[in-house]
Amino acid sequence: MPGGSRGKVRPAFRRWRAGRPFWGGLLLTLGGAEVLLTLKASLDVILHVGMQGLAGYLLPTVMLLCGVLILFNPAQRLFYSVIGVLVSLGTWMTSNLGGFFVGMLLGIVGSCLTFGWLPDQEPRVSRRQRRKAAEAERALAPPLEREAGQTV
């Protein structure tokens, strides 16, 4: 069966993804990986050497680690997102202007998405759906209540 295993894996992945701040953790992880890759660029490409010691490799590694921990331990997402945004901002000074701005911005956006994620929030209802529900409720109301609602 060509689609047999895919039919079981995809819903399981969607359930797993829905229970955590997936996009925030993924962006933070990608930002850390991008900053680490720009550290390996040739000297002609590097704009700012920075400390080039421990901090140059430590901060993007912490970014990457925070992103992975957000994905696999969403209960501690607030702590990891605060650490992630601080470390992302720190890469400005230590790692080639934050991976030429791209990695730093990915880390900041991912941390902000993670910080704002709420685990058990009901899906938002659009204004159009609320209006349709109110009209349907008014249409089902008994005639006396409709007349009383119009006179008040």
Number of strands: 0
- Strand % is under 5%
- What's the alpha carbon Rg, rounded to whole Å? 24 Å
Query: Mean of residue pLDDT?
Result: 83
SSE string: HHHHHHHH
Please identify the oligomeric state.
single chain
Q: Main beta sheet: strand number and arrangement?
A: none
Structural class: mainly alpha
How many helices in DSSP terms?
8
Helix percent band: over 70%
Q: How far from one another are the termini?
A: 65 Å
Shape: elongated
Uncertain residue segments: none
Description:
There is one protein chain. With 152 residues, the chain is mainly alpha-helical. It has eight helices and no strands. The protein is 74% helix and 0% strand. Helix 2 runs antiparallel to helix 3 (54-72) and helix 3 runs antiparallel to helix 4.
Descriptive labels:
74% helix; 152 residues; elongated; mainly alpha
Q: Outline of this structure?
A:
This protein has helices spanning 4-18, 22-39, 54-72, 77-94, 96-100, 102-116, 127-140, 143-151.
